[in-house]
Specification:
mainly beta; 1 helix; 38% strand; ten-stranded antiparallel sheet; three-stranded antiparallel sheet; 216 residues
Length: 216
């Protein structure tokens, strides 16, 4: 699974190109998309390194090129039955990295369908808490699907044990992937859906997208 990774440690040194002295390196970025070993740096003391090491990562491809004209399938069907309660630049929580996202109001347990075909790269469905407080964000249940253009489609606030797909599974557009809930940073039962591009330092950025009005 592709991952944009950043490794931090004050005991990490740059890989020397010759016999020159080792130079400190506060962090190093790496894009990992194979099982091959990737040299990140040099260390002098393994124990000291492990005690100071930190890692941040984001699933997805950093070189993703999203097509803004691609029409995504509405993840809740029929589309006309579920109103959008927060759109792009929504004042409640759609700002910064999540600027481009849609929130669909839906009763807990509403089926969620894949808006675009891809491979499931991450899931979580053990969260039981939710409410209108950012400190609860870590409890959100979700499914992340990698698309052919390197972007990820991310579906958030699923109910407890509400994911029906597994990591590594290929899904088709319109396929059932889970059920809506109210977990994480959520003020009412709904589905948060957005398209994202991975960045280093554990960051990501959302991109504009359009959802087809067709109900099926």
């Amino acid at each position: 699974m592709p991952v944009a990774l950043t490794l931090y440690s004050d005991k990490l040194f740059q890989i020397p190109s010759s016999l020159e002295a080792l130079k400190p390196k506060a962090h190093v970025n790496a894009f990992l998309n194979t099982d091959d070993a990737v040299p990140l740096g040099v260390i002098k003391n393994a124990n000291a390194f492990w005690h100071t090491m930190r890692v941040k990562w984001t699933a997805g491809q950093i070189d993703a090129q999203h097509d803004p004209d691609y029409a995504y399938y509405s993840p809740l069907q029929p589309a006309s039955a579920y109103r959008i309660v927060q759109g792009f630049n929504g004042s409640f929580s759609h700002s910064g990295a999540s600027r481009y996202a849609l929130d669909f109001a839906a009763p807990v347990g509403t089926p969620i369908l894949a808006a675009r075909a891809g491979v499931v790269i991450d899931t979580k469905d053990d969260g039981t808490k939710g409410g209108p407080h950012s400190r609860l964000a870590k409890h959100a249940n979700y499914v992340a699907i990698l698309h052919s253009d390197g972007t990820t489609g991310e579906y958030y606030h699923l109910k407890h044990e509400g994911v029906v797909v597994e990591r590594g599974q290929t899904v088709q557009q319109g396929q059932l992937i889970g059920y809506t809930g109210n977990t994480g940073f959520s003020s009412l039962p709904h589905l948060h859906f957005g398209i994202y591009v991975a960045k280093f330092h554990g960051k990501y950025v959302s991109v504009p997208f359009s959802v087809t009005d067709t109900s099926q």
